[in-house]
Structures are given as C-alpha cells and as structure tokens.
C-alpha cells in the first residue's frame, strides 16, 4: 500500500496519464470523424486545467478511471456546445446574454484592477467624500443603573441620595457594587456616539451630550431605566485623516474606479452601434390598451 501511495505521487506517472488521456481523446475524436464538419482538439493547457481543478477540489489527483471520465466529459461538453451554437440555441436566451455581458464586464474589471492610485488621488477622494469617513464623537464615562421597577415611587429620592454619595467619593469607588444589576458595563472608554445610542437608546445618547465633564449627573433616562453618569472625557468628531482610513479609502476608490472604467468601456462599445427603440404605432397602442 505504501509503495502504491508513493507511486501515485510520482510526477512521471501524472505525465504518463496525461499522455494516455490525450491518446484516448485523439482516438475518440478521430473515430467516426470521417465526413465530420468540425475538428475538436483538447489542448495540453485544457487537460492541465482539468487535472488542477480536480486535484484542488478533491485534495488528491484523479484515478485513471476518474481521469478518463473527466476527459470524456470535456469532449462531450465541446460537442454539445458546438452543436448548440450551430442550431442557434444561444440566440435570444436571457441567461446566456447576461452571462456574456458579465464576462465582458469582467474584462473591463481586469483592466481597472491594475490601476494603482497615488496618495494624491486618495487624498482627493477623501476630500470629495468627507461624510463617508467622518469620526463620531467619543465619550469615556461611567454609569450606575437604577431599576424603576425595583425603586418604584422611591426612584427620585434614592437617585438623589446615591448621587450625593457618588459626588462625595468622586471616582474613588468601585461603581460596579452600586446601583442595580444590568447587562451593561459600568465603564465605557472612548465609545462612539452611535454605539452609545445602540446600547442605551437615542434619548440617553442625546442627554449625554449635555452632561459636563468631571461630575456625577442624573438620573439620565435610557431604554432600560435611570442612570447616574460620570463623564470623564470627550473626543470631538470630524473627518478622519488619510492615515486613519487609508484602507477604506483605497477600497472605495478601487470600487468607484472600476465602475467608471466599466461605464467608459461600455460607452466606447456603444459608439459602434446605432440603437433604435421601436415604439408601438397608434393602432398597436389601441390594441395594447384594449387587452388590459
């Protein structure tokens, strides 16, 4: 068994199999080819592609029987493809038309992908689309939660008492031991405003904007209840520098450049054609209306 496995990995065996397959293809095509209108040649490149695709997919080379089947299927595909073209089966087929359109666009994509933007081009793109790369304001803060259901009518006095205690201790206490349990963190560092809104709700995020730095404030209402909040630090928003968002700018530039190249490619092709859009005449229009 070990000897067979070693033999199966020998490149010489692979080439012998390829040669045998090519001979089999030649025999298959030449047999009964007398008077045939066309000639089919399966090239070495096509055979190598079949071998590579099978090996990559299966993580092993094909057996002799599998290889013969692959080659026969390739010949079968070519025969049916040519006969379908001869019968005009590719005409007015929307699926084929879309596929051919995609292949033409892929050709344009290949050309566009080769273009490498300069740093000046990326800077110009960033300046032309500042809102795409705008930083949200960020807030570093602590919060202590008070559950309205637990405190009920005592929520306001309980919040006032706890607020006085917190302002007396400032930041020298472990706030995780205060207030009521909630599935949120007690401390958030440099949290963007949109993330604050996602976690606590829009009302809380808006209220947080007006809270001064360095003092416990509250209660601040959220989607969950009431919070006492200490804002430690703010960082304003603004347009990011190219160094901060270069990968995103490059990705967006590539996409826009590809779309522009595709459109230019199409417009150049369009100049080769005269396009006429037929519209129904008055009599035809009446027929269309009467069929509704």
Major beta sheet, strand line-up = 3-2-5-4
Integer average pLDDT: 78
Measure the end-to-end span.
75 Å
Which shape, going by the Cα principal axes?
elongated
Q: Name the beta content range.
A: 5-15%
Overall radius of gyration? 35 Å
List how many beta strands DSSP finds. Answer: 6
Give me the secondary-structure category.
alpha+beta
Low-confidence stretches: 3-8, 11-16, 21-36
* Oligomeric state: single chain
Helix content, binned percent: 55-70%
Helical run tally: 12
**What profile does the largest beta sheet have?**
4 strands, antiparallel
Query: Helix-strand pattern, N to C?
Result: HHHHHHEEHHEHHEEEHH
Secondary structure layout:
Blueprint: H1 2-8, H2 11-30, H3 44-58, H4 64-86, H5 94-113, H6 119-128, E1 134-135, E2 138-146, H7 148-151, H8 155-169, E3 187-192, H9 193-200, H10 202-209, E4 216-221, E5 226-235, E6 238-239, H11 242-270, H12 282-290
Antiparallel strand pairs: 1-6, 2-3, 2-5, 4-5
């Amino acid at each position: 068994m070990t000897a067979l496995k070693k033999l199966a990995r020998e490149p010489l065996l692979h080439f012998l199999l390829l040669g045998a397959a090519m001979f089999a293809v030649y025999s298959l095509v030449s047999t009964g080819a007398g008077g045939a209108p066309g000639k089919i040649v399966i090239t070495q490149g096509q055979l190598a592609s079949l071998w590579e695709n099978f090996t990559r997919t299966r993580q092993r080379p094909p057996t002799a029987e599998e290889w013969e089947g692959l080659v026969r299927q390739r010949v079968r595909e070519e025969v049916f493809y040519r006969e379908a073209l001869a019968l005009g089966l590719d005409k007015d087929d929307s699926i084929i038309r879309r596929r051919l359109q995609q292949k033409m666009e892929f050709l344009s994509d290949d050309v566009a992908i080769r273009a490498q933007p300069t740093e000046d081009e990326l800077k110009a793109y960033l300046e032309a689309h500042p809102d795409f790369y705008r930083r949200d304001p960020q807030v570093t803060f602590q919060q202590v939660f008070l559950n309205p259901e637990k405190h009920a009518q005592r929520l306001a006095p309980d919040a006032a008492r706890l607020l006085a205690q917190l302002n007396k201790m400032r930041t020298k206490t472990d706030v995780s031991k205060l207030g009521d349990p909630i599935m949120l963190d007690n401390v958030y560092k440099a949290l963007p405003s949109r993330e604050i809104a996602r976690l606590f709700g829009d009302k809380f995020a808006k209220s947080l904007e007006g809270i001064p730095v360095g003092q416990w404030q509250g209660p601040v209402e959220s989607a969950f209840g009431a919070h006492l909040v200490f804002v430690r630090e703010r960082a304003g928003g603004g347009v990011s520098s190219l160094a901060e968002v270069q990968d995103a700018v490059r990705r967006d530039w590539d996409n826009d450049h590809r779309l522009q190249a595709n459109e230019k490619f199409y417009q150049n092709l369009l100049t080769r054609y005269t396009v006429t859009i037929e519209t129904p005449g008055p009599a035809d229009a009446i027929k269309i209306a009467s069929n509704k």
